[in-house]
Amino acid sequence: MQLNKTGIALFLFFGLGGLAFVIAGVVIPLPAEGRFTFILLGGIWVLVVVGLILFARREDQKADHQDWVFKNGIHGTATVLDAGSNTTVNEMPLMKLKLALDIPGVGRSEVKRREVMPVFTANRMQPGLVLPAYSNPQDPNDFVLVW
Amino acid sequence: MSDLDAAYSSFAADHGLEVIPSFAAGPLTPLLVESGAGQLGPAARGTLGEGVEGIVGHLAYTRNKTFRFSVALTEVPASTAFLPRLFCVRKGRHTRDDEFYGFEARYSKLWTESTKLNERYTVSISPFQDPVWLRQLFSPALVDWLASEPPADFSFELAYGALLGSVEQDNPDAAALAALCEATAHVAARVRRECEE
């Protein structure tokens, strides 16, 4: 997953809005209950934004790692054995894939992979489909599926 | 007969295509996914140009507001192995008005090597695309052509062998449909040639 423009706008809105609520709760002379409400609401907004920023950073690191495996990995294939989805994330199916991973010099193994895919890609994930795969030379279980 | 039906009939008659009331393209490309089932109607099938067979049709859907496109759909099956996804979309085009998600699947990355192309289009590809192959496809001749020849709003999406050319239009006339088909066929022929090489 990666952050898009809408995400950045939402982060700014809720991050700055949350900070404004917290500051307002501290600065504006209000009854204690009012201050508490402002600070609590602002604090929750800020905490959620911080959590999502950490998530976005982790996803970025994962993407960088996948790019590294793609550039430096061993080129093999992954055959779809089974594919299905009963969950969507932001209107995109979370696909559960069972794959036969075949990496030269490593051998063939059955692996499972969960990937959020756009609908036009998910529809193609049928048993028998052979996709390119790149495996980390240091860790055969670490691979990039090219879809 | 509506203006739209008349335009398709006239275009089909002039270019030897067969008019069909509707065609279910399915969710083959991002634009077709946005529309739901990818239902085209009216539509016409036959040769789009340069020996490329396909279907041209009207795509309309509502996502808060109603979007209307003329689309031309064809296949370049050989492209899947070399170029699984290539989206060349006119800058500033919106295909939905209800996008509120902050995160999206990392399924494409921008290709920004050609300034001339990027002035008019947003070009995105698979994150794991071979850049050398793409540079060969986007030859100076193709870049020049894309920058100046196709209809103003022309965009195309190539996904796993399905190529969809599109222009945002409410009521296209026969000439507009012909220009769309010609542009889509030109892209299809170029991709096909590059795959063969």
Write the layout of secondary structure elements.
The complex is a heterodimer of chains A (147) and B (197).
Chain A: E1 2-3, H1 5-27, H2 32-72, E2 74-84, E3 88-89, E4 92-103, E5 107-116, H3 119-122, E6 130-136, E7 139-145
Antiparallel strand pairs in A: 2-4, 2-6, 3-4, 4-5, 6-7
Chain B: H1 3-15, E1 18-20, E2 23-24, H2 30-34, E3 39-49, E4 52-63, E5 65-75, H3 79-82, E6 85-90, E7 103-104, E8 109-110, H4 115-120, E9 121-125, H5 131-137, H6 140-148, E10 155-159, E11 162-168, H7 174-196
Describe the protein's architecture and organization.
The complex is a heterodimer of chains A (147) and B (197). Chain A has 147 residues and is an alpha+beta fold. Helices cover 46% and strands 35% of the residues of chain A. Chain A has helices spanning 5-27, 32-72, 119-122; strands spanning 2-3, 74-84, 88-89, 92-103, 107-116, 130-136, 139-145. The radius of gyration of chain A is 22 Å and the shape is elongated. The two termini of chain A are 15 Å apart. Chain B is α+β, with helices and mostly antiparallel strands and 197 residues long. Chain B has helices at residues 3-15, 30-34, 79-82, 115-120, 131-137, 140-148, 174-196, and strands spanning 18-20, 23-24, 39-49, 52-63, 65-75, 85-90, 103-104, 109-110, 121-125, 155-159, 162-168. In chain B, strands 1, 2, 3, 4, 5, 6, 8, 9, 10 and 11 form a ten-stranded antiparallel β-sheet that branches. In chain B, strand 4 (52-63) and strand 5 (65-75) form a beta hairpin. In chain B, helix 1 (3-15) crosses helix 7. Chain B starts with a helix and ends with a helix. The model of chain B has no long low-confidence stretch (mean pLDDT 90). Chain A binds chain B through residues 1-4, 6-8, 10-11, 52, 56, 59, 63, 66-67, 70, 89-92, 115-121, 123-124, 132, 134, 144, 146-147, and chain B through 26-30, 32-33, 84, 99-107, 126-128, 159-160. Strand 1 (2-3) of chain A pairs antiparallel with strand 7 (103-104) of chain B, so a sheet runs across the interface.
